[in-house]
């Protein structure tokens, strides 16, 4: 399920998604690229995927950036 997304540059989007993998809730923040042949976007290897139970700690780490 896509939570949010935004265009980072022409032909690229950053998407935040949640879903399950092998029964474990996962959070995925990934760069998506627009295919040259059509207007569809495809995920790239550039991103992060982690267990949803780590979200609180991840947010604490991200707050230290400011």
Automatic annotation (TrEMBL):
GO molecular function: DNA binding
Stored InterPro entries: PC4_C, ssDNA-bd_transcriptional_reg
Database matches in Gene3D superfamilies: Transcriptional Coactivator Pc4, Chain A
Domain Transcriptional coactivator p15 (PC4) C-terminal: 11-60
Family matches, as SUPFAM superfamilies: ssDNA-binding transcriptional regulator domain
GO biological process, one term: regulation of DNA-templated transcription
Protein name: Transcriptional coactivator p15 (PC4) C-terminal domain-containing protein
Organism (species): marine sediment metagenome
């Amino acid at each position: 399920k896509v939570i949010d997304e935004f265009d980072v540059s022409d032909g690229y989007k950053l998407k935040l998604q949640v879903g399950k993998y092998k029964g474990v809730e996962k959070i995925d923040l990934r760069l998506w690229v627009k295919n040259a042949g059509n207007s569809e976007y495809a995920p790239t290897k550039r991103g992060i995927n982690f267990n949803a139970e780590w979200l609180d700690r991840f947010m604490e780490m991200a707050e230290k950036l400011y």
